[in-house]
Design brief:
The structure is a homodimer of 305-residue chains. By secondary structure, the first copy, chain A, is of the alpha/beta class. The first copy, chain A, is 25% helix and 28% strand. Chain A is built from 6 helices and 15 strands. In chain A, the strands form 3 sheets. A 6-stranded mixed sheet of chain A has the order 5-4-3-2-1-15. In chain A, strands 6-7-8-10-13-14 form a 6-stranded mixed sheet, with helices on one face. In chain A, strands 9-12-11 form a 3-stranded antiparallel sheet. The radius of gyration of chain A is 19 Å and the shape is globular. Chains A and B meet through α4 and α5 of A and α4 and α5 of B.
Amino acid sequence: MSPPLLLSRVLKLGLIQMSSTDDPDANLDRALASTREAAARGAQVICLPELFRSRYFCQTEEHRFFELAEPIPGPSTDAFTALAADTGVTVIVSLFERRAAGLYHNTAVVIEGAAGCLGRYRKMHIPDDPRYFEKFYFTPGDLGFRAFPTARGVLGVLICWDQWYPEAARLTALQGAEVLFYPTAIGWHPEEKAQYGQAQHEAWELSQRAHAVANGCFVVAVNRTGFEPPPGAPALGEGIEFWGQSFVAGPDGAIVDRADATEEGVRVVAIDLARCEEIRTHWPFLRDRRIDAYGDITRRHLGAP
Amino acid sequence: MSPPLLLSRVLKLGLIQMSSTDDPDANLDRALASTREAAARGAQVICLPELFRSRYFCQTEEHRFFELAEPIPGPSTDAFTALAADTGVTVIVSLFERRAAGLYHNTAVVIEGAAGCLGRYRKMHIPDDPRYFEKFYFTPGDLGFRAFPTARGVLGVLICWDQWYPEAARLTALQGAEVLFYPTAIGWHPEEKAQYGQAQHEAWELSQRAHAVANGCFVVAVNRTGFEPPPGAPALGEGIEFWGQSFVAGPDGAIVDRADATEEGVRVVAIDLARCEEIRTHWPFLRDRRIDAYGDITRRHLGAP
């Protein structure tokens, strides 16, 4: 039997690192234009940043921002469905999903060529920290962790805060995902950046590289960039400086490509999915998992009652 | 209620990075001397590398090497129990455990001051790769993942290949571990080093730093150093160049201390266990774990039947 790991399966990724203004329609137009640019440059699977259609409204808790939510299908998915049908690309579209009155999710939709919408992932881990008040807006996902079989390979989709959870990466990779995508909106509190900024960014990047290593798959993080002041009075905070640095990590954890912190732009990055099997046979971590001994992962704590 | 995170809990760690010769008694003597040196320099919790009492015999599969195994209690634990009683330190001692005829484990024992042996951890994940033929020698651990309450804090003990498994770190940290110790014997195949050496070492270090981040605890990896030729004929391989670089990572993932690749020596590193609670409140990952959705972690795969 000839080794399948020798059969190259090159995939061209498109990463859209962008900033967002307070004009949702303009943001959508720019996202569409960037996606078309990525497609024109040969990208086959294109990922947009988290909630790119608006400012990162979770800096405050304001009821008016629920008006930014949209159903699926809705304006964003309609526009990207048309684009995908036209260009043939697969695209991962993050949006603020209105599921029902009073029920909203932070969702990413996978849309592919003529097939259209392949499915959605609803963010499972919802943060709530100063300037990231997501628990006010988003109900935690109820669809579980998801990998989508596509024409380009099996693609796992997770969102931002999920980045910090090895369980999320594992459960997505075990479904066969060869690439984990993380649409993201993360940045520095400007007043903390000098003291903690480097450690924060490093922890973010290395946690995701570790998911690539542990699971023998690629990881793609696509982040927002640019500074956004708080939507309300200046007294509410000093805003967020989104740290960009979207990246692709290989299944050995090495950085394949990394954008800088401040620049918007389209990156087209070729990867070879055959590397997953090559790395997994050389670093056979999946072989030795002690599934008989992992049951307590579903408990909150094992020390304190 | 005053915030407990302001109460400093400084702990002095001792890391013994060493190479081993083919004389087990000489290796034990040097390990004891280094441990005494660490204690004299103020170390309170001291960790030795994996299987320091012998060459890394797993480079080949030879029945004669089972003679290196010892019971618990046995010569190694007796010697370190005496040392701990004498100096008051807590020490993590890796050894080749003979449990019964034909039943052996790769084990680490926690020994503390006058209390003596607090318990043992048996390596749960056993590798089997060229020059790391551990499945021949070691039965996978049957004691589960373990954190030990000690006079110095709650200490988690894992061993080498466990480093690659986020489940192992999580299940140990959830028991309250504030520090995860990894006695280790890992290195480069000399003939691969130029091409893959940097990526291999980086993956190793970042995976463990990611455990520190995900769990908000310290991670201490204590590795062997030095070159060891294969025990048999040269045709069996080119040996292993153990890559040293023992390190301490903080709960934010930052490297607190790192030894170099080739030097033997005792490192004494002060850490503040209060940092765990500080980091965990700022990066509240444990709060948001989706324990309702992690059950499939105990399955081998979720795609292939």
